[in-house]
Amino acid sequence: MPEESSRTKQREVYHVPDPGVLERGAQGKSGQRRRGTSPGSRVPRDDAPSVLLLESEPRSAKAAREFVREYVGCHVPDASPDHVESVVLVTSELVTNALRYGTEPGDSVRVRIDADGARTRIEVQDPVRRRPRPRPESRERDRGRGLIILDHLCPDAWGVDDIPFGKSVWAEVKGT
Asked: Are 88 and 101 in contact (CB under 8 A)?
């Protein structure tokens, strides 16, 4: 039987009901932590999943940040710290907006990432078709800066696509 190439191999999808599950690099299949690993251990892999499903709750933004940080570390190990932090910030903004404006309790958000040396693309899908729009900045509520951040970190490289059952907001961070 011929060996399957990595390009045609189906990527694994993780559903994260608890952001602590992202420590999967230090856990066996049973979910039990392997002896001798710390909670923050990551096992470098070139087959890190490219899709993450999250519940509609505030702590999901943290899980998304950890997910993309690990993905970029696996697929673009030479990425600069600035690039990684930009990807993490963009992901955090996209996921936070999806959770705040694109979901209701019980909904889920899907994060998809693709990276190479030239750019990292993040897509966040939610079940609401309403498109993001600039909102007045509010220092009291700590809101209104997400699209400004996208414009700054991803100039002319972000947008919204309609998908069945919702929308996909995407952004591309250029490699550095």
From this structure: no
CB atoms within 10 A of CB 36: 7
Which amino acid, residue 168?
S
CA–CA–CA angle 157, 64, 86 (5° rounding): 40
pTM assigned to the model: 0.71
> CB-based burial of residue 118 (10 Å sphere; 0-12 exposed, 13-18 middle, 19+ buried)?
exposed
Q: What is the pLDDT of residues 84-122, one digit of tens each?
A: 999 999 999 999 999 988 898 899 999 999 998 899 999
Q: Among 31, 17, 48, 29, which residue's Cα sits nearest to residue 112?
A: 48
State the pairing for strand pair 13-16/51-55. parallel
pLDDT of residue 145: 73
Strand 158-163 and strand 119-126: the pairing is unpaired
Q: How far apart are CA 132 and CA 134, in angstroms?
A: 7
- What sign for the dihedral angle of Cα 16, 45, 111, 100? positive
HSE at residue 98, side-chain half, CA atoms within 13 A, is: 32
User: CA-CA distance, 41 to 55, in Å (whole number)?
Assistant: 24
